[in-house]
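User: Show me a protein chain along with its predicted structure.
Assistant: Here is one chain, sequence first, then structure tokens.
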Amino acid sequence: MNKIRKWWRLIYIGYVLNKYNVTTMMANLPLLRVLKITLIFNPYYWFARNILDRGTRLRLALETLGPIFIKFGQALSTRRDLLPQDLASELAKLQDKVPPFSGEYAVKVIEKALKQPISEAFMSFDVNPLASASIAQVHSATLANGQEVVVKVLRPNIQNILVQDTELLKTLARMLERYIPATRRLRPVEVVAEISRNLLDELDLQREAANASQLKRNFKDSHIHYVPGVYWQYCRNNLLTIEKIKGIPVSDIETLKLLNTDLKLLAERGVEIFYTQVFRDCFFHADMHPGNIFIDATDPQDPKYISIDFGIVGTLTREDQHYLAGNFLAFFNRDYKKVAELHIESGWVPYATRADELESAIRTVCEPIFEKPLAEISFGYTLMRLFQVARRFNMSVQPQLVLLQKTLLNIEGLGRELYPELNLWATAKPFLEKWMKTRVGWKGFAKRSMDNIPDLSERLPDVPEMLFDLLSSKAKKARFEDNNQMNQPKTPKQSKKRGVLVGLGLSLTVLGIIYGYNNELLNDLHRFLAKHYGIVGSVGVVLLVYALISKQKD
């Protein structure tokens, strides 16, 4: 039965694409010209009159097919440099102007979720939706205390539709990997699994509320980015109530220009917000299409971003964060050798790859675009060259970075719209350099040491017992050791070296604790040490651990 549903859905997708004559547009693309052969079997190709323009037909087809296709259209709409203007402008309507569902249905969902009549939950509620998107729609409301809010409600039957389409995508991905070996480098099954997980997570509006709260804390004192507050008492798995914001849609460039908004500063701040989320917080808004971004232009020379819709967020592991920061910084410094080495070290390309060849290929692609503003960079050409490099060196797709790459494309497209003269590299480089200094410099070392102090102080009392157990086990083992064993008795030199390390480690550890808790009784030298007791104590612990490990190896 499941297979029948998949085939039926596939047939329906083909029917919709043919109905709106989208297959004709697809067949005109260089990579899909082979589809022209199938057009002879399309009755709409021969008999239908294309009363609607191609942009409207494409938008209607995506709307009809559901949320996954709508999100694909939203992503395309942010890249006007890759699409004809008529298509990009029509697809932009998918950001918040998807056909709404009944307001009466929304009222029933809210009343059932809150277990009270709508008139008791809110002082006022507008049944006409404020905006409608692929997964949900929002309604304006007012709380009993007079606070204006928006209430977000999921679309009817949305979970079944998403599950059906994601299962279909998984099936197609498995077929690609099985029958087209060249696609295995793209890891379609893992990529689709990552996309599916994020789409299904978006159906939990309680999760979205938690994401919004986290982002608001991260930018609590920010003067460039505002995140609306959440009203938890009016939130459920299928219901979200959040502060109503007032701002200008970031896509309304004309209004921003009429207000004399500093678009250069606005574009630069967009880049800063992105890198701050990724590298400082390791928690980023991953659905930053123009429909989810507004501008507070109360002071046009000091504009502020306002973001909404936090259903999809991304996170990075410490390892991916480190390699990405290193790659970005090396790229901005045009250190292509370092970029190649990091790609090999991280496993993004096979370990047998020659670094010099990869370095040369990356330089060939990247060097022509440096020092150019966004308006002069052909993103399509650059992307094509990057794909060629990836294919040549068998560079595999990293599924865990799909959200980041999608968000980066959105940010770059947004910057291109706001201020085409923006130098993306010059804007991002200072931020990354500052971040790297806090990570690998003395400040970073001190911060990580201080962060680890609670855990180390908890384990420190166990060190003598651990040391005693190791010495006891070693003594017992030594009595039964055969002279022909690999482990030879340690020389006096080794014993002396280890004794010095243990003594020094214990001394520094004790000094770190004493200076940290008794700094009021110390002279200037002691006060200096007290200020850095975290570092002193940490070095002591490191030496202790090294001594214990080396003893265990002996």
